[in-house]
Amino acid sequence: MVLGTGSHVGKSLLTAALCRIFAQQGYRVAPFKSQNMSLNSAVTPEGLEIGRAQALQAEAAGILPSVHMNPILLKPCGDMTSQIVVRGKIWGKLSASGYHLGRVEELLPIVRESYETLAAENDVIILEGAGSPAEINLKQHDIANMRMADLAGAACLLVGDIDRGGVFASLLGTVELLDPHEQARILGFLINKFRGDIQLLEPGIRMMESRLGKPCLGVVPYLSQLSLDEEDSLGLPSLTSTTDAAWTPSNDPTRPIRVAVIALPSFSNFTDFDALRNEPSVSLQLCRTPAPLAHADIVILPGSKQTADDLVWMREEGLDRCLLEHAHKGLVVGICGGMQMLGQEILDPHAMERSETTQGLGLLAIRTTMQPQKITRISAGRLVASSLFGQPVPPLNISGYEIHIGETHYLEAAQPFAQLGSDEVVLFDGCTSPNGLVIGSYLHGLFDDDIFRHAFLASTRAFYGLAPAINVEDWKRKREESLNRLADTVRASLDLEQIFAWAGLTYAPQPAASSAAHEVVPR
Question: The whole model's pTM is what?
Fold first, then answer.
C-alpha cells in the first residue's frame, strides 16, 4: 500500500509506476483505492464511474478499469457537500460531517467485497491511500488508509514530497501520530520529487532511518512533462489572472493556436485538455478573468460539477460578456456542462444543483433538464457535418465518455454535432451553431483521439488563415512513453527486490532500455 504524508505527494503516479513494473515482471496486478475525492473521473467499459487516477493505474497495469478499483468516489459540490458515488452510481449527497460521522461505516462491507474481488483475480494489489493516514480528527471513520491496510494485510510504503519542503518533519510526524500496530505496518519510506545533490540529502535520510527504525527504499527524482492524468486540481498549471505577455496580437502565420479554457470553480475532468496542451502548435491557458479571452482563438467551456452555479459565477466575473463578444468573430467549444451553458436554458425541477431555471448563453439551440439519474457510458460515433468551423474535413470518427445528469433536448433548427452508436440505434450528440463557429459535445476525452484532434486544429488554423502545423503529437504513443519513463525512473530509484519481497514475489532486474522491460501484455 502506498501511503502519503499528505495530498499531492505523488501517491497516484507511484501506484501507477508500481502497477506497470509488476506487470512488466509478468504478474497479474491491479490498483485499488477504497475512497477517492476528485472531480476528475472516468467511465469503465460497463458504464460505471470511478476516479480518473485508478483508470490511469489500470492502463499502467495493462488491464481494463473496473469499478472495484475505486468503489467509493466523492465528488465535491461546492456547498460543503459531496455527491457520493458507490460502485459507479450516485448513492446520495451528504455534508462532510454527515458522511464521516453517520454513513461511511455502512459502506465498509462494499469496500471489502470490492477489494476481495480484485484480490481473487490478481497476484498482487497495489493499494493507494488518501491524503494522509495521520488526520487524527478523521481517523476514527477513515476507511481509505490504515483501516484499509489492516483489512488487506498490506505492507505499507510511506511517501514524502521533498519539493514542498519539510519532508523529514512530515515523515516523522505522520508515523508518530499513528498507533503502534499501524506504525508496524509501515515497512519503509521513500522521498519523492527530489531535485538537487543526493549527497546533501544522505545525512538526513540516515537520521530519519534511525529515528523511525525503518529503511528508506529510495529517492525518486522530480519528473517534469510526464503528460499523465492528475488526480485533482492541485496538479493543474497556474491559472492566468492577468494579461499574459505570450498572447499579444501577431501576424505570424506559424504562431500557435491560442486556446483559453475557462477554469470554472467546479471545473471537472480537466484532463480533457491534456492532449491539446501537449500539441506543439497549441498555447493553452486556464483562465478565470476576462483579459486572456481578448487574444484567444478558441474559448472552451469545460465540464462542471455545478453547471448552473458556475454559469452564475461567469456572469458575476464578466466572463459571459467576453465570451459572447468572442463568439461574434472567433471559435467557441463547450464540453459536457460547458455545452449545457451554451444552450438557451438549464432547468432543474428536481433541485439537483439549483432549484430555479438558469438562462443559458444562447449560442446553441438546446435546452437542458437536470435529472436524478446520471448518464455514464463510453461512446463512439462520427461527425455529422462534412466541415468543422466552416472548413471541409474528411469523414471523422469521434470517441470519448459521458458523465452527466443533464438531459439535453434540441430546439427548432438545431444541428447535432455527432451521431453516436450504430446505424440501427441512432443517438445524436452535441450541437453546432448555424454559422458553425460554436460547437458543443457531451464527450469527455474528445481530444484524445489523434485523428480528430489534428483535424480540429487544422480547421482552426485554416479558419484564422494560419499556416498548417509543422509537427503534431501522437498522444497515445506519448502516454505510453510517459508511463514507461515513470516506471523506468521508479525502477532505478527504489529497492524493488525488497518491495516485491513484501508482496511475497520475486523481482528479476531488467535494463530499463530493454524492450522486455517495457512490454506489458494487455489482459
Answer: 0.91
